[in-house]
Amino acid sequence: MLLSEHEIDIPIADGHRGLLAYFAKAISDRLPENFLPLRFVVYGSDHTKYLCEVGGLSSDDESNRAMPSSIFRFVPRDVENTDRFTTILLVPTGIGAEVGGHAGDAGPVARLLGQVSDRVILHPNVVNASDINEMPENSQYVEGSVICRLLMGTIGLQPVRQNRVLVVIDAHRDPIFVHAAVNAVSGARASYGLSCPAVVCLDPPVKLRARFASSGRAAGRIEDLAGLFQCLSERKDQYDAVAVSSVIDVPHEFHLGYFEAKGQMINPWGGVEAMLTHALSSFFNVPTAHSPMFESREIANLDPGVVDPRMAAEAVSDTFLQCTLKGLQRSPRIVTDAEAMRRPGVVTVEDISCLVIPDGCLGLPTLAALEQGIPVIAVRENRNIMKNDLSVLPWRPAQFYQVENYWEAAGVIAALRAGISPDSVRRPLRDTLVVTESLERRDAHSPGRPARESC
């Protein structure tokens, strides 16, 4: 079993309409039959083509394993529930985001948006800061592919009081790192009541290799997944969520180079971690998160000096594991049954009020929100390497907002939550549009439709 990424150029669709179905067909036509897409991103686009990267699983032994449904499966919502205002906050992994692209440094943003929302749904990359996780009390911590499926309308989220978190770690050749991981779990059990049925040392471990795609986005390759899949299959009745801690192979110079670059180097570890958790969540329908494990004492003892504050949480951790344990402790249950999704308390796409993303990010969440009619707020200050002009997409009126920073994003959310047009609090206030509909004239291309013209 192999997880890898493919780069594909897809011609521009007319008016950028129907993109979900368009991309699904284009990818199906271009990739091998035994390749199962699990992650999709448009990292750039112009007037001729979309530059796409597709991560997925290649395997010849899946005949006896239940396969997840297509990541492009889409169920449109019929209504929007307005009893609570639910914000989804995304900072995609591995794109060098100024805010949230390092070590949980979008945590303050999550807490800010939590103050102007009834509920915030976020993914680990937003708040995972090694030994620190300060997600707001009204947040739900779910893996990125789960957010994709939620917006696509194919799953729901059921809040829980507590999960049994199975922890799977590498059977490291140096026992000091195994001891550190076990102590991190024990500390979580003793200090905030984590329920952990076991720490499983996987031998041989999964092989994660982090590399950069030609776009500059952090990606990678994952081999020997079969042992981890077997482990989770055999213990499926023992856990509700899975935390994985394993060695990630990166060039040796990255360990100090990342800190010395002062934020100018994309975090090389996050992309391949996202590939792994996408696969686990998709196949097993449980909350998952990953943390890296040091390769050796030599690397663990490197002194990066005083680092960029956004990376400081990583510079002071031995295991990077605690943030995932805290997040997974109450991560909501994934509901896949259509009937169960209609039960009280289950959060579905009908409950989503808005999506907040860094400007330029075009993937399944943005595409799903576009199709579902969910307002999208794109933050320019959160610069990243994605090269897409989101304003050209066929948004409905008052669906898309480009703002300068997260202060402004909070203001737009507050306006939407209050039921007022965000434009109404800005000046100058545009003139009211007035049109005349003539029943005498008919559009030659649309018989029976009244013509529209300005006064």
List keywords for this structure.
455 residues, alpha/beta, disordered C terminus
Q: Structural class, from helix and strand content?
A: alpha/beta
Head-to-tail CA distance between termini: 64 Å
Backbone CA Rg = 23 Å
Largest sheet features: 10 strands, mixed
Separate helix tally: 13
- Oligomeric status of the shown chains? single chain
Mean pLDDT: 94
Shape: globular
| Beta-strand segment tally | 20
Fraction of helical residues: 25-40%
Q: In percent terms, what proportion of residues is strand?
A: 25-35%
Report the uncertain regions. Answer: 451-455
In short:
The chain is an alpha/beta fold and 455 residues long. 27% of the residues lie in helices and 26% in strands.
What does this structure look like?
The strands form four sheets. Strands 1, 2, 3, 8, 9, 10, 11, 12, 13 and 16 form a ten-stranded mixed sheet that branches. A hairpin with a 2-residue loop joins strand 19 (435-443) and strand 20 (446-454). Helix 4 (144-152) runs parallel beside helix 12. The model is unreliable at 451-455 (pLDDT under 50). The chain has helices at residues 19-30, 107-115, 124-127, 144-152, 175-192, 226-234, 254-260, 270-284, 297-300, 312-315, 322-329, 364-372, 406-418; strands spanning 2-11, 35-45, 49-58, 86-89, 119-122, 139-141, 156-158, 165-170, 199-202, 207-212, 218-223, 241-249, 288-293, 333-335, 352-358, 362-363, 376-379, 400-403, 435-443, 446-454. The chain has 455 residues and is an alpha/beta fold. The protein has a domain at 2-58. The longest helix is centred in the middle third of the chain and has 18 residues, at 175-192.
